[in-house]
Amino acid sequence: MRILVAPDKFAGTLSAVEAAEAIAEGWRRQAPGDEIDLAPMSDGGPGFVDVLNAALGGELLVESVAGPFGDTVPATVLIVGDTAYIESAQACGVHLTGGERAEHAGTAGVGELIAAAIDAGARAVVVGLGGSGTNDAGAGMLGALGAAADVPLDKGASGVNGARHVDLEPARRRTTAARLVAATDVDSPLTGLFGATRTFGAQKGIAEERMPFVDGLLESFAAITDFRTSLEKGAGAAGGLGFGLFLLGAERQAGIELVARAVGLADRARQADLVITGEGAFDFSSRAGKVPAGVAAVASEALRPCIALAGQVLVGSRETRALGMDAAYSIVDLVGEEEAFRDPGGALALLTERVARTWSD
Protein backbone atom coordinates (compact mmCIF):
# COMPACT_ATOMS: atom_id res chain seq x y z
CA MET A 1 0.00 0.00 0.00
CA ARG A 2 0.91 3.63 -0.45
CA ILE A 3 0.15 5.75 2.60
CA LEU A 4 0.00 9.56 2.64
CA VAL A 5 0.56 10.90 6.16
CA ALA A 6 -0.64 14.52 6.49
CA PRO A 7 -1.23 15.50 10.13
CA ASP A 8 -1.42 18.84 11.89
CA LYS A 9 0.46 19.47 15.11
CA PHE A 10 -0.76 17.74 18.27
CA ALA A 11 -1.00 20.97 20.26
CA GLY A 12 1.24 21.06 23.30
CA THR A 13 2.90 17.71 22.57
CA LEU A 14 4.05 17.14 18.97
CA SER A 15 4.81 19.34 15.99
CA ALA A 16 3.31 18.32 12.66
CA VAL A 17 6.70 16.99 11.57
CA GLU A 18 7.08 14.95 14.77
CA ALA A 19 3.53 13.62 14.47
CA ALA A 20 4.10 12.53 10.86
CA GLU A 21 7.30 10.73 11.84
CA ALA A 22 5.60 8.96 14.75
CA ILE A 23 2.75 7.80 12.50
CA ALA A 24 5.25 6.51 9.95
CA GLU A 25 7.19 4.66 12.63
CA GLY A 26 4.10 2.93 13.95
CA TRP A 27 2.84 1.99 10.49
CA ARG A 28 6.20 0.46 9.49
CA ARG A 29 6.15 -1.81 12.54
CA GLN A 30 3.01 -3.48 11.24
CA ALA A 31 3.49 -3.07 7.48
CA PRO A 32 7.19 -2.55 6.70
CA GLY A 33 6.67 -3.09 3.00
CA ASP A 34 4.22 -0.21 2.54
CA GLU A 35 5.32 3.06 0.94
CA ILE A 36 4.87 6.08 3.21
CA ASP A 37 4.78 9.69 2.02
CA LEU A 38 5.12 12.30 4.78
CA ALA A 39 3.34 15.64 4.28
CA PRO A 40 3.18 17.53 7.61
CA MET A 41 0.45 20.18 7.45
CA SER A 42 -0.58 23.48 9.01
CA ASP A 43 -3.68 25.67 8.86
CA GLY A 44 -1.73 28.88 9.49
CA GLY A 45 -1.11 28.36 13.19
CA PRO A 46 1.99 27.01 14.97
CA GLY A 47 4.22 25.10 12.57
CA PHE A 48 3.21 27.15 9.53
CA VAL A 49 6.75 28.30 8.72
CA ASP A 50 8.38 24.93 9.46
CA VAL A 51 5.94 23.06 7.23
CA LEU A 52 6.38 25.49 4.34
CA ASN A 53 10.15 25.56 4.77
CA ALA A 54 10.23 21.76 4.54
CA ALA A 55 8.08 21.85 1.40
CA LEU A 56 9.44 24.91 -0.40
CA GLY A 57 12.90 25.60 0.99
CA GLY A 58 13.96 29.21 0.95
CA GLU A 59 15.82 31.54 3.29
CA LEU A 60 15.01 31.95 6.97
CA LEU A 61 15.45 35.40 8.47
CA VAL A 62 15.80 35.31 12.24
CA GLU A 63 14.32 38.35 13.96
CA SER A 64 13.90 39.56 17.55
CA VAL A 65 10.47 41.15 17.99
CA ALA A 66 8.11 42.28 20.70
CA GLY A 67 6.27 39.48 22.47
CA PRO A 68 2.68 39.74 23.74
CA PHE A 69 3.69 41.68 26.86
CA GLY A 70 6.50 43.74 25.36
CA ASP A 71 9.34 41.37 26.09
CA THR A 72 11.62 40.29 23.23
CA VAL A 73 11.01 36.95 21.52
CA PRO A 74 12.71 35.23 18.57
CA ALA A 75 10.80 34.67 15.34
CA THR A 76 11.57 33.73 11.76
CA VAL A 77 10.46 34.94 8.35
CA LEU A 78 10.61 32.44 5.49
CA ILE A 79 11.57 34.05 2.17
CA VAL A 80 10.82 32.05 -0.96
CA GLY A 81 11.52 34.08 -4.09
CA ASP A 82 9.70 37.37 -3.61
CA THR A 83 7.19 35.94 -1.11
CA ALA A 84 7.58 36.02 2.65
CA TYR A 85 5.77 33.70 5.05
CA ILE A 86 5.17 34.71 8.67
CA GLU A 87 3.78 32.63 11.52
CA SER A 88 1.98 35.08 13.80
CA ALA A 89 2.01 32.64 16.71
CA GLN A 90 5.78 33.02 16.95
CA ALA A 91 5.22 36.61 18.08
CA CYS A 92 1.89 36.37 19.91
CA GLY A 93 1.11 32.69 20.45
CA VAL A 94 -0.72 31.26 23.44
CA HIS A 95 2.50 29.44 24.37
CA LEU A 96 3.96 32.90 25.08
CA THR A 97 1.07 34.00 27.29
CA GLY A 98 0.43 30.74 29.09
CA GLY A 99 -3.26 31.21 28.34
CA GLU A 100 -3.45 34.21 30.66
CA ARG A 101 -3.84 38.01 30.52
CA ALA A 102 -5.21 38.02 26.99
CA GLU A 103 -6.82 41.42 27.60
CA HIS A 104 -3.34 42.91 27.99
CA ALA A 105 -1.49 40.89 25.33
CA GLY A 106 -0.54 42.66 22.10
CA THR A 107 0.45 41.85 18.54
CA ALA A 108 3.19 44.43 17.88
CA GLY A 109 5.68 41.69 17.08
CA VAL A 110 3.59 40.59 14.10
CA GLY A 111 3.80 44.09 12.68
CA GLU A 112 7.55 44.06 13.20
CA LEU A 113 7.80 40.79 11.27
CA ILE A 114 5.75 42.22 8.39
CA ALA A 115 8.03 45.27 8.28
CA ALA A 116 11.13 43.04 8.30
CA ALA A 117 9.74 40.99 5.41
CA ILE A 118 9.02 44.10 3.34
CA ASP A 119 12.45 45.54 4.13
CA ALA A 120 13.97 42.25 2.91
CA GLY A 121 12.36 42.87 -0.48
CA ALA A 122 9.24 40.71 -0.27
CA ARG A 123 6.55 41.66 -2.77
CA ALA A 124 3.98 39.42 -1.08
CA VAL A 125 3.71 38.73 2.65
CA VAL A 126 1.62 35.77 3.79
CA VAL A 127 0.74 35.88 7.48
CA GLY A 128 -0.33 32.59 9.02
CA LEU A 129 -3.02 33.15 11.64
CA GLY A 130 -3.81 30.74 14.44
CA GLY A 131 -2.73 29.69 17.92
CA SER A 132 -2.66 33.23 19.27
CA GLY A 133 -2.80 34.21 22.91
CA THR A 134 -3.95 37.72 22.02
CA ASN A 135 -7.33 39.34 21.44
CA ASP A 136 -6.55 42.90 20.37
CA ALA A 137 -8.09 43.06 16.86
CA GLY A 138 -4.59 43.54 15.46
CA ALA A 139 -4.16 46.92 17.17
CA GLY A 140 -0.59 46.17 18.22
CA MET A 141 0.35 45.06 14.73
CA LEU A 142 -1.14 48.23 13.26
CA GLY A 143 0.75 50.40 15.75
CA ALA A 144 4.06 48.69 14.99
CA LEU A 145 3.51 49.49 11.32
CA GLY A 146 2.91 53.17 12.04
CA ALA A 147 -0.79 53.56 12.85
CA ALA A 148 -1.47 56.26 15.44
CA ALA A 149 -4.30 56.65 17.94
CA ASP A 150 -5.33 58.63 20.99
CA VAL A 151 -4.71 55.52 23.12
CA PRO A 152 -1.84 53.00 23.26
CA LEU A 153 -2.13 50.36 20.54
CA ASP A 154 0.42 47.97 22.05
CA LYS A 155 -1.36 47.11 25.32
CA GLY A 156 -3.87 44.58 24.08
CA ALA A 157 -7.62 44.98 24.04
CA SER A 158 -7.51 46.86 27.34
CA GLY A 159 -5.28 49.50 25.75
CA VAL A 160 -7.85 50.54 23.15
CA ASN A 161 -10.53 51.19 25.77
CA GLY A 162 -11.92 54.67 25.13
CA ALA A 163 -10.26 55.10 21.75
CA ARG A 164 -11.93 57.77 19.62
CA HIS A 165 -9.62 57.97 16.61
CA VAL A 166 -7.14 55.74 14.78
CA ASP A 167 -5.06 56.96 11.83
CA LEU A 168 -4.35 53.93 9.65
CA GLU A 169 -2.71 55.75 6.75
CA PRO A 170 0.89 55.49 7.99
CA ALA A 171 0.50 51.71 8.34
CA ARG A 172 -1.08 51.45 4.91
CA ARG A 173 1.78 53.42 3.37
CA ARG A 174 4.31 51.20 5.19
CA THR A 175 2.82 48.11 3.56
CA THR A 176 2.06 49.36 0.03
CA ALA A 177 5.21 47.75 -1.34
CA ALA A 178 3.81 44.25 -0.76
CA ARG A 179 0.60 42.33 -1.29
CA LEU A 180 -0.66 41.10 2.08
CA VAL A 181 -2.35 37.73 2.54
CA ALA A 182 -4.09 36.60 5.71
CA ALA A 183 -3.89 32.80 5.90
CA THR A 184 -6.71 32.06 8.33
CA ASP A 185 -7.73 28.89 10.15
CA VAL A 186 -11.29 30.02 11.03
CA ASP A 187 -14.20 31.85 9.42
CA SER A 188 -15.14 33.88 12.51
CA PRO A 189 -16.09 37.56 12.31
CA LEU A 190 -14.39 39.91 14.74
CA THR A 191 -17.20 40.30 17.28
CA GLY A 192 -20.52 38.84 18.36
CA LEU A 193 -21.64 35.37 19.37
CA PHE A 194 -19.28 33.66 16.91
CA GLY A 195 -16.52 36.27 17.10
CA ALA A 196 -12.96 36.15 18.38
CA THR A 197 -13.73 36.77 22.04
CA ARG A 198 -16.71 34.50 22.59
CA THR A 199 -15.36 31.65 20.50
CA PHE A 200 -11.73 31.55 21.55
CA GLY A 201 -11.44 33.88 24.54
CA ALA A 202 -11.76 31.17 27.19
CA GLN A 203 -8.72 29.26 25.95
CA LYS A 204 -6.74 32.51 26.14
CA GLY A 205 -7.72 33.15 29.74
CA ILE A 206 -10.63 35.59 29.34
CA ALA A 207 -13.14 34.86 32.08
CA GLU A 208 -16.74 34.26 31.05
CA GLU A 209 -17.97 37.30 32.94
CA ARG A 210 -15.40 39.52 31.16
CA MET A 211 -16.32 38.45 27.64
CA PRO A 212 -19.14 40.95 27.02
CA PHE A 213 -16.86 43.82 28.08
CA VAL A 214 -13.89 42.63 25.97
CA ASP A 215 -16.12 41.95 22.97
CA GLY A 216 -17.46 45.48 23.38
CA LEU A 217 -13.91 46.87 23.26
CA LEU A 218 -13.32 45.21 19.92
CA GLU A 219 -16.68 46.36 18.63
CA SER A 220 -15.85 49.94 19.59
CA PHE A 221 -12.44 49.64 17.91
CA ALA A 222 -14.12 48.38 14.76
CA ALA A 223 -16.62 51.26 14.86
CA ILE A 224 -13.83 53.86 14.60
CA THR A 225 -11.89 51.97 11.93
CA ASP A 226 -14.17 49.97 9.62
CA PHE A 227 -17.12 48.12 11.14
CA ARG A 228 -18.14 46.48 7.87
CA THR A 229 -14.73 44.86 7.59
CA SER A 230 -15.15 43.41 11.08
CA LEU A 231 -18.03 41.28 9.75
CA GLU A 232 -15.93 39.57 7.09
CA LYS A 233 -15.10 35.89 7.40
CA GLY A 234 -11.72 35.48 9.03
CA ALA A 235 -11.73 38.90 10.72
CA GLY A 236 -11.80 37.13 14.08
CA ALA A 237 -8.84 34.85 13.28
CA ALA A 238 -5.98 34.99 15.80
CA GLY A 239 -7.82 37.26 18.19
CA GLY A 240 -8.75 39.70 15.43
CA LEU A 241 -5.41 39.83 13.64
CA GLY A 242 -7.40 38.98 10.53
CA PHE A 243 -9.34 42.22 11.00
CA GLY A 244 -6.15 44.23 11.40
CA LEU A 245 -4.73 42.76 8.21
CA PHE A 246 -7.97 43.37 6.32
CA LEU A 247 -7.76 47.04 7.34
CA LEU A 248 -4.45 47.14 5.47
CA GLY A 249 -5.99 45.64 2.35
CA ALA A 250 -4.98 42.02 2.89
CA GLU A 251 -6.75 39.32 0.94
CA ARG A 252 -7.90 36.21 2.74
CA GLN A 253 -6.92 32.64 1.96
CA ALA A 254 -7.70 29.51 3.95
CA GLY A 255 -4.40 28.50 5.53
CA ILE A 256 -4.96 24.80 4.95
CA GLU A 257 -5.65 25.36 1.25
CA LEU A 258 -2.52 27.48 0.87
CA VAL A 259 -0.35 24.83 2.53
CA ALA A 260 -2.03 22.02 0.59
CA ARG A 261 -1.13 23.74 -2.68
CA ALA A 262 2.42 24.38 -1.51
CA VAL A 263 3.06 20.72 -0.66
CA GLY A 264 1.21 19.37 -3.72
CA LEU A 265 -1.22 17.47 -1.53
CA ALA A 266 -3.81 16.75 -4.24
CA ASP A 267 -1.31 15.02 -6.54
CA ARG A 268 0.15 13.07 -3.64
CA ALA A 269 -3.29 11.95 -2.49
CA ARG A 270 -4.08 10.60 -5.97
CA GLN A 271 -0.97 8.44 -5.75
CA ALA A 272 -1.93 7.02 -2.34
CA ASP A 273 -4.20 4.16 -1.31
CA LEU A 274 -4.95 5.66 2.11
CA VAL A 275 -4.64 9.16 3.56
CA ILE A 276 -3.96 9.62 7.29
CA THR A 277 -4.38 12.95 9.05
CA GLY A 278 -4.48 13.90 12.72
CA GLU A 279 -4.41 16.50 15.48
CA GLY A 280 -4.52 16.77 19.24
CA ALA A 281 -8.31 16.82 19.67
CA PHE A 282 -10.67 15.67 16.94
CA ASP A 283 -14.02 17.37 17.50
CA PHE A 284 -16.44 19.69 15.74
CA SER A 285 -13.82 22.45 15.69
CA SER A 286 -11.96 20.19 13.24
CA ARG A 287 -14.39 21.19 10.50
CA ALA A 288 -13.92 23.91 7.85
CA GLY A 289 -10.60 25.73 8.01
CA LYS A 290 -8.75 23.12 10.06
CA VAL A 291 -6.23 20.58 8.82
CA PRO A 292 -8.28 17.36 9.22
CA ALA A 293 -11.23 18.73 7.25
CA GLY A 294 -8.93 20.15 4.58
CA VAL A 295 -7.00 16.91 4.18
CA ALA A 296 -10.24 14.90 4.14
CA ALA A 297 -11.59 17.15 1.36
CA VAL A 298 -8.47 16.56 -0.72
CA ALA A 299 -8.72 12.81 -0.13
CA SER A 300 -12.37 12.84 -1.13
CA GLU A 301 -11.57 14.67 -4.37
CA ALA A 302 -8.96 11.99 -5.07
CA LEU A 303 -11.50 9.24 -4.20
CA ARG A 304 -9.25 7.94 -1.43
CA PRO A 305 -10.22 6.86 2.09
CA CYS A 306 -9.10 9.14 4.92
CA ILE A 307 -8.71 8.36 8.61
CA ALA A 308 -7.80 10.56 11.56
CA LEU A 309 -5.52 9.80 14.50
CA ALA A 310 -5.89 12.10 17.49
CA GLY A 311 -5.01 12.55 21.10
CA GLN A 312 -8.73 12.53 21.82
CA VAL A 313 -11.74 11.82 19.63
CA LEU A 314 -14.70 13.79 20.97
CA VAL A 315 -17.31 12.95 18.31
CA GLY A 316 -19.11 9.74 17.43
CA SER A 317 -18.82 7.67 14.26
CA ARG A 318 -21.70 9.46 12.52
CA GLU A 319 -20.15 12.87 13.24
CA THR A 320 -16.76 11.56 12.16
CA ARG A 321 -18.17 10.64 8.77
CA ALA A 322 -19.87 14.03 8.56
CA LEU A 323 -16.45 15.59 9.04
CA GLY A 324 -15.18 13.66 6.02
CA MET A 325 -13.38 10.81 7.77
CA ASP A 326 -13.88 7.09 7.28
CA ALA A 327 -12.79 6.56 10.90
CA ALA A 328 -11.06 8.31 13.80
CA TYR A 329 -8.89 6.74 16.49
CA SER A 330 -7.89 8.06 19.92
CA ILE A 331 -4.56 7.80 21.73
CA VAL A 332 -6.22 8.41 25.11
CA ASP A 333 -8.68 5.57 24.52
CA LEU A 334 -5.75 3.25 23.86
CA VAL A 335 -3.17 4.17 26.51
CA GLY A 336 -4.87 6.65 28.85
CA GLU A 337 -4.31 10.37 29.31
CA GLU A 338 -1.26 10.13 31.56
CA GLU A 339 0.70 7.94 29.14
CA ALA A 340 -0.45 10.00 26.17
CA PHE A 341 1.19 13.09 27.68
CA ARG A 342 4.21 11.27 29.10
CA ASP A 343 5.29 9.85 25.74
CA PRO A 344 3.16 11.41 22.98
CA GLY A 345 5.34 10.23 20.10
CA GLY A 346 5.51 6.67 21.38
CA ALA A 347 1.79 6.59 22.10
CA LEU A 348 0.93 7.89 18.61
CA ALA A 349 3.23 5.27 17.06
CA LEU A 350 1.54 2.53 19.09
CA LEU A 351 -1.91 3.71 18.05
CA THR A 352 -0.82 3.76 14.41
CA GLU A 353 0.57 0.24 14.67
CA ARG A 354 -2.82 -0.98 15.93
CA VAL A 355 -4.69 0.93 13.24
CA ALA A 356 -2.44 -0.49 10.52
CA ARG A 357 -3.66 -3.97 11.39
CA THR A 358 -7.09 -2.92 10.15
CA TRP A 359 -6.17 -0.77 7.16
CA SER A 360 -3.02 -2.33 5.67
CA ASP A 361 -3.61 -5.15 3.18
From TrEMBL:
Pfam families: Gly_kinase. Belongs to the glycerate kinase type-1 family. Keywords: Kinase, Transferase. This is Glycerate kinase. Gene3D superfamilies: Glycerate kinase, domain 1, Glycerate kinase, domain 2. PANTHER family: GLYCERATE KINASE. Its EC number is 2.7.1.31. GO terms for molecular function: glycerate kinase activity. The keyword Manganese does not apply.
